[in-house]
Amino acid sequence: MQSGLFLETPGRPIRDAGDVFLVSLMVKAVMSVMSKLKQQVLGSVGLSLLFFGSSFPLAHSPEEAGPHKEGELLSNVRQVTFEGRRAGEGYFSADGSLLVFQSERDPKNPFFQIFVLDLETGDTNRISPGYGKTTCSWVHPGGKKVLFASTHSDPEARKKQEDELEARAAGEERRYSWDYDEFYELYEADRASGELKQLTDSPGYDAEGSWSPDGSLIAFSSNRDAYTRPLSEEEKGIFEKDKSYFADIYVMNADSSEVRRLTDVPGYDGGPFFSADGKRICWRRFSEVGATAEIFVMNVDGTDKRRITSLGAMSWAPFFHPSGDYLIFGTNLHGFANFELYVVDAEGRSDPVRVSYTEGFDGLPAFSPDGKVLAWTSNRTPGGQSQIFFAEWNNPRARELLGLSTGTATVPAITSTDLRLHVEELASDETEGRLTGTPGARLAAEYLASTLDALGYEPAGDDDTFFDPFEFTSGVSLGTANRFVLQEGENSSQA
């Protein structure tokens, strides 16, 4: 990955694009449309002119804007990473104790490297080799290994670093482009020993990998097909200008065996992640022209592919909520350079709901394993550099906005995970002990009713609800006519 882009869009400068991923998408869209549609971009407002026919607005209305709007779904927003030129794409470990992310922070390497942050101790350690370019990391469910893509096997890797550093020192401005380096391969690193194991060895770009929840599978994006079969003259022309056009989603066993291709349509398919139950995969697909992208889901065997957004914008980086009922993603629906977070139900039945309201870049979201915390990359920092942020996530409100039951979905079998989930909800501080007649008891009752509804039970209470009102004695107090008599033998006293 490279950096150092300066773009000017109408009314707003973007330095370093706030996030290299934002610039990657912007440049990809511009270059793809220019090359495939043979359009010309003229003048300093070229970016806006290029997209004058877009179906999405270039700005949102004043009443929509403002970080205060984020409080509906996000609370306690805080910056988590600070070091280096920038950081991003953070993902939690299965137990929630670690965050793996990429950052440009080594003075000797201008490209991203992979780091692991211990959320309990605050310690951060680099897990990647330290040279070459890296991207897209993931922690193994067991917590002892980290998956990422790297180009350190490129014989020219160190020279490319030196060239980039020299260019920056000379004050040269380089346009950032995510070049889909053919030396990108998938590796797993042992956290304790640092030992690296190469998992892929195929010509072309192999990256954007993640393990399944049980650690048995790896999903990733690759354009290897363009390197391993004869291309038509038309395809050769496309490949020369846009190697990502041939990228598809693949799945392989964790030991690198049995590689199988899940998608095979024109356009860049990438960013696959498994659902928490391991049954589904989400990803984003760019249009053939490359100017827009939408969110898709499918079974892990590639069947039942569904597009769940139709925004006509650049929507990407989807991630399942642990419930599996909805996903979060980033989109520039509100302006070419303004990426905001949205949620959409996993079936695509409801309209996507906006989450973030801060101008700039908000993307690459990921939920903690319990679904209570959201991590994402944002350039809302004072200096405009991208870093990782955390916020508490309001799952009940998200479900309500998406038209989903507010109950927590469970699997048919009775599992310790489900039992713990329900006990934690019913014994939470908000229920205040569930004393009959108290607000806490009402909250607990509403949780039970919504859970029964989510499981498919039909209500049999009053007015087709799960509730039947009843009277009870909530307490006893002394009235004015009460008296106490103590009698012993012939003597008595009263009060």
Task: Explain the overall architecture.
The structure is a single chain. This protein has 495 residues and is an alpha+beta fold. Helix content is 17%, strand content 30%. It has eight helices and 28 strands. The protein has helices at 20-37, 46-50, 157-169, 225-228, 233-241, 395-401, 416-426, 439-454; strands spanning 6-9, 12-15, 74-79, 86-92, 98-104, 113-118, 124-126, 134-139, 145-150, 185-190, 196-198, 206-211, 217-222, 248-253, 260-261, 269-274, 280-286, 293-299, 306-307, 315-320, 326-331, 340-345, 353-354, 362-367, 373-378, 387-393, 485-488, 491-494. The strands form eight sheets. A four-stranded antiparallel sheet has the order 3-26-25-24, with no helix packed on it. Strands 4-5-6-7 form a four-stranded antiparallel sheet, with no helix packed on it. A four-stranded antiparallel sheet has the order 8-9-10-11, with no helix packed on it. Strand 18 (293-299) and strand 19 (306-307) form a beta hairpin. The longest helix has 18 residues, at 20-37.
